[in-house]
Amino acid sequence: MPSLDPVQSPRDVDSHSPLDHRVLRADVTVRRSDGTPLAGTDVVVEQQRHAFAFGNIGFDFVGLANGETTAAGNVFGGAEPDAAARLVDLWLDVFNTATLPFYWQGFEPVRGEPQTERLLVTARWLQERGVATKGHPLVWHTLAPTWLDELPDAEVEEAVRARVRREVSAFEGLVPTWDVINEVVIMPVFDNEETTNAVTRLCRSRGRLATIRLAFDEARRADPRATLVLNDFDMSTAYECLIEGVLEAGIAIDAIGLQSHMHQGYWGEDRTLAVLDRFARYGLPLHLSETTLVSGDTMPAHIEDLNDFQPEHWPSTAEGEERQAHEIVRHYRTLLSHPSVAAVTYWGITDAGAWLGAPSGLVRADGTPKPAYDALRRLVKEEWWLPPTYGRTDECGSVVLHGWAGTYSVTTPDGTATVELSADRPDLEVVVDR
Amino acid sequence: MPSLDPVQSPRDVDSHSPLDHRVLRADVTVRRSDGTPLAGTDVVVEQQRHAFAFGNIGFDFVGLANGETTAAGNVFGGAEPDAAARLVDLWLDVFNTATLPFYWQGFEPVRGEPQTERLLVTARWLQERGVATKGHPLVWHTLAPTWLDELPDAEVEEAVRARVRREVSAFEGLVPTWDVINEVVIMPVFDNEETTNAVTRLCRSRGRLATIRLAFDEARRADPRATLVLNDFDMSTAYECLIEGVLEAGIAIDAIGLQSHMHQGYWGEDRTLAVLDRFARYGLPLHLSETTLVSGDTMPAHIEDLNDFQPEHWPSTAEGEERQAHEIVRHYRTLLSHPSVAAVTYWGITDAGAWLGAPSGLVRADGTPKPAYDALRRLVKEEWWLPPTYGRTDECGSVVLHGWAGTYSVTTPDGTATVELSADRPDLEVVVDR
């Protein structure tokens, strides 16, 4: 075992890197199970997981985890179960956080018959594979169940409250993060539908802030430790004003969710950083909750509601795939360069069953990875990753760990241990055990 | 004196008119100075004034009222004093409410030397002519004084507070309505300037709601009876979200100011009504505070900040003047059809010195009225106006007054009196006096 300098350095990161703030340094004291320091010993440190949430939707795996044979149960797109099976390894090799579909209409198409068990099975299936989960969304005007429409406002409110309580309670300890309410900026004035849905009606009647408050109140009571996210696609001053009202109202949001479905074209670094700076002003973590880049033609700029553009064929092209690969690298570099960004969720692993029929996946419909998949994997698991690295403990049993915030294994001749590298803890102790 | 039916009806208004809600009916009991009813007597009722605020800017008259000979003192455009003199009668024949320029940079170019006296003289000059006034604006990032820029945030806040207190106190009883704060949606992120102004800096540091609160707190304390307006050009959901935050914060705004500088083209009825409906949801009066329609080419649609388009020549054209006349009628009809609209201020009487150099006036630069002037006058003083109308009191001395909310004279052989027709008072008493 070759012995290197005990100070480990992630590749390509120096003191001037824009990603400096994501690289931490800690003294790790390694002890035997009897408490004595393991001095002057060769160790191998190896990253196991990123603390940063590299997310993707896990919609494709609901059927698979539940042993279903068709995609009939999919509410918001996704691959057929047999195709999904071939995506698992690709998915797990890049992503550590899965967004699970709690769209109300699909989750409870018949009042009183929620698919709680189906999603519990899925969340456990992901947990067993080391994947954290996020529930999306608890309250949203789109895909609100049709049975809600006939209820008067007071009953709609009670049904919304009960639904939030029920889901957050049932998944406590399993789903730690929730998009509590989605797209509130447009919610009370949403009119791209034939008849006004009940959630829009409720929000119009109660007001945006009262609607947010009731959703967050119920979620917080149901799981006080959960990370509760306010999520929106509106990146204008409207969302800023909404957030300022939410903070003024004393509603405790834990993170600001920013959608970035770039079907109409990549934002570029300047616009992205401007958006991040504007929303970072509130001192809350930013979750880039829904990130899309297409590998085909971009959607015409005049389309206002993305749902209004769903061509019969929207192919992935060679040229588009190269562009998508370049853009995904630029975009993730930009996002991670901003200290406020704590999570980035890409919206879809595969083109099969993708939202809007867009070539937005990182894997083609035939299951082969696009260049964007490989490019993102290179970032997440190579450039931003500490591979097995050799070092030697000093006379006190300490070795310096210098790497990306996350989980590391420490392997010694006396056994192996796992350590969490986080900004909160510059001094770490591990006890190795065979 | 011919005696007509004692029930008077404004012309062109029937029970199905969209302006029904602006037409009131009251029993007016006419008494002699000794208290006895004036029964069975011919009376002439004549409208003197609209309760509805038909406003325009009074910027042109500041110099004139103060006996100045040049427009050098004008801060935000306006005609030369000698030209303004020829506009007075045209202005007074249509409008009853004047917006006065309190732009801080012009009002107090040197710290501690405000133009209080100059504006007091103007407000009194207007008051003597039966014109109500509105102060505009107390807090705004644009035209904030440059001497503010070097102060730290805490001193900027104190200077803003002191300025609001000072102006509202000095004009108490003379200026009953204020645009307390202007364009807060964009205020903290306004960047169309070389160096960031101090008010934007303050708003970014304190937040939008705290900035609104400090301005309204000071204004309310200085004149508890004043009508305090929040004003913006942003008609998107951003302004809705801001207002919801303001209401949540318990900041008492008395009216919502909606700008509508339509240099880029008339909105049309549908868009106008949609905007009014969205902002009427808050149950507050709507003031269409800044209304512009050009009588020349419209500004290109891609311009985001209207100030970025100021061509050297922007002529009024014959075709444009006809269009402006049609549009102003359509627009005022639409605005008055909505029960929440309490005030409409047109932005400029003359093209001379008009904002952006646009042909936005109702009078050409040479002082001749455009078709839009005549069209608006016809609405305000003919179609929506009760001309001298004959009636006869019944045996109790009562006559029914059916007309537009406003001030009426009641002339009898025994003398004349003035009466206010308002929704609050269906039964009126007047004492005529010679």
What report would you give on this structure?
Chains A, B: Its EC number is 3.2.1.8. Chains A, B: It catalyses: Endohydrolysis of (1->4)-beta-D-xylosidic linkages in xylans. Chains A, B: It holds the Pfam family Glyco_hydro_10. Chains A, B: Keywords: Carbohydrate metabolism, Glycosidase, Hydrolase, Polysaccharide degradation, Signal, Xylan degradation. Chains A, B: This is Beta-xylanase. The structure is a homodimer of 434-residue chains. By secondary structure, the first copy, chain A, is α/β, with parallel strands linked by helices. The first copy, chain A, has 2 domains: 76 residues, Immunoglobulin-like (Sandwich); 331 residues, TIM Barrel (Alpha-Beta Barrel). Chain A is built from 12 helices and 15 strands. In chain A, the strands form 3 sheets. Chain A has an 8-stranded parallel beta barrel with strand order 3-4-5-6-7-8-9-10, surrounded by 4 helices. In chain A, helix 11 links the parallel strand 9 and strand 10. In chain A, helix 10 packs parallel to helix 11 and helix 11 runs parallel beside helix 12.
Radius of gyration of chain A: 23 Å
What's the CATH topology name of the largest domain in chain A? TIM Barrel
In CATH, what is the homologous superfamily of the largest domain in chain A? Glycosidases
Helix content of chain A: 25-40%
Pfam families (chains A, B): Glyco_hydro_10
Protein name (chains A, B): Beta-xylanase
Catalytic activity (chains A, B): Endohydrolysis of (1->4)-beta-D-xylosidic linkages in xylans
Domain GH10 (chains A, B): 69-379
